[in-house]
C-alpha cells in the first residue's frame, strides 16, 4: 500500500476516533459498562465481516494468544479515557490524549528495538508545558480526569508499539478481532468485580444510547481501528501517533459545537492546548524538510 493512501486512511481513522469522546459523553452508561458494550459490538461486528467475506482463519484466532493481552490493555485504556471524559469533559480527555507522542517516543524504540530518534523525543517533550498549563489549576474531579487521560495515553502508546512489532504475524482485521475479543473478556472480569461491589446501576442501554453504541462499536471502532492498524504496517508507531494526535483538533471542535464544552474551559486550557497542538503540526513540517535534505 502506498504511503499517500496510508496517510489518507489514517486521517479517516482519526476523524472517526475523534467522535469517540463525543459519543462517550452522550452515552449515559458508566465508563466500564460503556466499554463492555463497545468491545462486544466491535468483536461481533468484525467477526461477522470476516465470516461473511470468508476471510476468518481459526488458526490465527487460536495461535496468537499474546494479542488478547493487548486487548486487555485496550479495555483498561478505554476505561481511563471514558472515565476522563465523564470526570472532566470531552475536550480535556482529548487534549490529554495528545501526550501519546511523548510516551511513544520512549516506548516504541524499546519494544521494537529500533534506534531512538532524538527529534521524536524533543517533539514529544513539547507537550509537557501544555499539560502543566492545563493541569496546573485543576482540582477535584477535573484533576482526576486529567490523570486518567494521561494514563489512557500511556496505555495506548504501549499497545501501538506492540502492534507495530506483531502486525506482520497477522492481518489488520484479525488483529482488531483478537484485540476486541481480549478487551471484551477483560471487561467481563472487570464488571464481575463491580457487580459484587454493587457499583453497577445501569447496564442495559435504552433509547439513543443504543444508536450511539452501535456507531461507537461498528464505525468508530471496527472501521477506525482496522484503518489505523493497517497504517502501522507502513509507518512507524511514532509517526502514526503524531497523525492520531490530530484527534483532539477534530474532537475539541466537535465538543465545542455539540457539547458546548467551551463554558467549562479556562484560558490556561486554551494556552496549553495550543502548545500541544503546535507540536502536532510542527513535527510533520520538520520531518518533510528533513527528508528533502
First CA to last CA: what distance?
25 Å
The total count of strands amounts to 0
Protein structure class: mainly alpha
Low-confidence stretches: none
Apparent shape: globular
* Biggest sheet record: none
Strand content: under 5%
Query: Could you say how many structural domains there are in total?
Result: 1
- Helix percentage range: over 70%
Order of helices and strands: HHHHHHHHHHHHHH
Determine the mean pLDDT: 81
Can you describe what's shown?
With 293 residues, the protein is an all-alpha fold. It has one domain (3-292). The protein is 82% helix and 0% strand. Helix 5 crosses helix 9 (140-166), helix 6 (100-112) packs parallel to helix 9 (140-166) and helix 10 (172-197) packs across helix 11. The longest helix has 27 residues, at 140-166. It is globular, with a radius of gyration of 18 Å. The two termini are 25 Å apart.
Question: In brief, what are we looking at here?
Answer:
The protein has 293 residues and is mainly alpha-helical. The protein has 14 helices and no strands.
Q: Top keywords for this entry?
A:
293 residues; EamA_dom; globular; membrane; mainly alpha; 14 helices
Outline the secondary-structure elements.
Blueprint: H1 3-26, H2 31-52, H3 58-63, H4 65-87, H5 90-97, H6 100-112, H7 118-125, H8 127-136, H9 140-166, H10 172-197, H11 208-232, H12 237-244, H13 247-259, H14 267-292
Helix pairs in contact: 1-5, 1-11, 1-13, 2-4, 2-10, 2-11, 4-5, 4-9, 4-10, 5-9, 5-13, 6-7, 6-9, 6-12, 8-14, 10-11
Amino acid at each position: 500500500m502506498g504511503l499517500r493512501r496510508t496517510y489518507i486512511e489514517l486521517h479517516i481513522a482519526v476523524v472517526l476516533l475523534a467522535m469517540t469522546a463525543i459519543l462517550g459523553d452522550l452515552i449515559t452508561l458508566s465508563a466500564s459498562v460503556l466499554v463492555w458494550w463497545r468491545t462486544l459490538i466491535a468483536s461481533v461486528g468484525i467477526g461477522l465481516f470476516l465470516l461473511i467475506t470468508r476471510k476468518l482463519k481459526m488458526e490465527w484466532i487460536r495461535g496468537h494468544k499474546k494479542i488478547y493481552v493487548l486487548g486487555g490493555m485496550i479495555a483498561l485504556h478505554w476505561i481511563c479515557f471514558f472515565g476522563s471524559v465523564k470526570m472532566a469533559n470531552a475536550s480535556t480527555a482529548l487534549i490529554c490524549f495528545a501526550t501519546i507522542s511523548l510516551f511513544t517516543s520512549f516506548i516504541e524504540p524499546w519494544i521494537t528495538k529500533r534506534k531512538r530518534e532524538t527529534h521524536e523525543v524533543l517533539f514529544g517533550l513539547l507537550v509537557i508545558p501544555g499539560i502543566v498549563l492545563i493541569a496546573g489549576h485543576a482540582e477535584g474531579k477535573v484533576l482526576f480526569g486529567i490523570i486518567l487521560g494521561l494514563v489512557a495515553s500511556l496505555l495506548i502508546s504501549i499497545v501501538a508499539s506492540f502492534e507495530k512489532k506483531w502486525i506482520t504475524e497477522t492481518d489488520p482485521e484479525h488483529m482488531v478481532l483478537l484485540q476486541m475479543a481480549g478487551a471484551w473478556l477483560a471487561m467481563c472480569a472487570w464488571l464481575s468485580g463491580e457487580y459484587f461491589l454493587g457499583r453497577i446501576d445501569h447496564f442495559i442501554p435504552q433509547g439513543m444510547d443504543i444508536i450511539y453504541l452501535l456507531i461507537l462499536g461498528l464505525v468508530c471502532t471496527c472501521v477506525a481501528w482496522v484503518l489505523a492498524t493497517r497504517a502501522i504496517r507502513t509507518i512507524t508507531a511514532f509517526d502514526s501517533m503524531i497523525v492520531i494526535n490530530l484527534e483532539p483538533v477534530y474532537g475539541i471542535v466537535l465538543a465545542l459545537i455539540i457539547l458546548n464544552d467551551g463554558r467549562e474551559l479556562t484560558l490556561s486550557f486554551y494556552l496549553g492546548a495550543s502548545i500541544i497542538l503546535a507540536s502536532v503540526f510542527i513535527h510533520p513540517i520538520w520531518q518533510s524538510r528533513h527528508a528533502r535534505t
